[in-house]
Design brief:
About 20% of the residues are buried. The chain has 7 helices and 6 strands, in the order H-H-H-H-E-E-E-H-E-H-E-E-H. Strand 5 and strand 6 form a beta hairpin. The chain folds into 3 domains: about 40 residues, no CATH class; about 140 residues, 3-Layer(aba) Sandwich (Rossmann fold), CATH 3.40.50; about 25 residues, no CATH class. With about 240 residues, the protein is α/β, with parallel strands linked by helices. The mean pLDDT is about 80. A 6-stranded mixed sheet has the order 2-1-3-4-6-5, with helices on both faces. It is globular.
């Protein structure tokens, strides 16, 4: 907030006192005295909503190469015995930090709309999809991935993008979450990102205890039960 206030004050030629130890109430007082707008950094949810509601959503943010390599190595370690000769797809190649760093011995393919190769027209048969997808079209991306039916889907996403309906979509298609790692990455994306890996398997162990109960309806039905009304089964996602 302080850094935003400094920028705002500089724009209007207002000289501010030292701000490093000011409380939020102090900042509000300064804004009132100098007729400045109180700076509010948009929440993660607001920023994602803004991306989706723009006339032309644009969340083309290239992944730092060390982060892409870390992600790739994580998947490669999990499936070390099945790498050589396996088909890997990067559906959103961008600058190539994923595609160029895929493990030795795999068969690589890519899509990139800016180079005329649209992922949504892709008709190959990948076994591994490891990439950083655009968050603004996440549901459409998941639908396409399910249609392609790779063995492994591993995505670098905003931590809050792994919503219950999206997880349910993958579980209903036969995928289970076999790994999830959440980390803070300064100055990239939304600051808190997750590497989530799903495997299409009936025997793989899920790291997620996925409860599909709609809790708002459960609360309503619990209240009805307390009042002596009939208690019905809860709807699911």
């Amino acid at each position: 907030m302080i850094s935003l206030l400094r920028e705002h004050a500089k724009e209007y030629g207002v000289k501010l006192p030292a701000l490093s130890r000011l409380r939020v109430d102090d900042i509000r007082t300064i804004c009132w005295r100098h007729d400045l707008t109180i700076p509010v950094k948009p929440s993660m949810g607001q920023r994602m909503s803004d991306i989706q509601r723009r006339d032309t959503p644009n969340d083309c943010v290239y992944t730092p190469e060390p982060l892409a390599i870390y992600h790739i190595q994580k998947v490669a370690t999990m499936y070390a015995d099945d790498l050589v000769g396996s088909q890997w797809l990067d559906p959103f190649k961008g600058g190539g930090v994923y595609y160029e760093n895929y493990p030795w011995g795999v068969v690589k393919s890519w899509c990139e709309i800016d180079e005329g190769v649209d992922f949504f027209d892709y008709a190959g048969s990948p076994e591994f999809v490891v990439s950083n997808p655009p968050y603004s079209i996440m549901r459409r991306v998941l639908d396409k991935l399910i249609d392609l039916s790779p063995r492994v889907i591993s995505l670098l996403i905003c931590q809050s993008a792994a919503t219950p309906p999206r997880v349910a979509l993958l579980y209903d298609a036969g995928y289970v979450m076999v790994n999830q790692e959440i980390m803070g990455v300064k100055d990239f994306g939304f600051g808190i990102i997750a590497i989530v890996t799903f495997e299409r398997s009936s025997s793989a162990k899920s790291v997620l205890e996925f409860n599909r109960v709609n809790w708002r309806k459960l609360e309503k039905q619990y209240t009805m039960q307390q009042e002596g009304d009939v208690f019905h089964d809860c709807d699911e996602f």
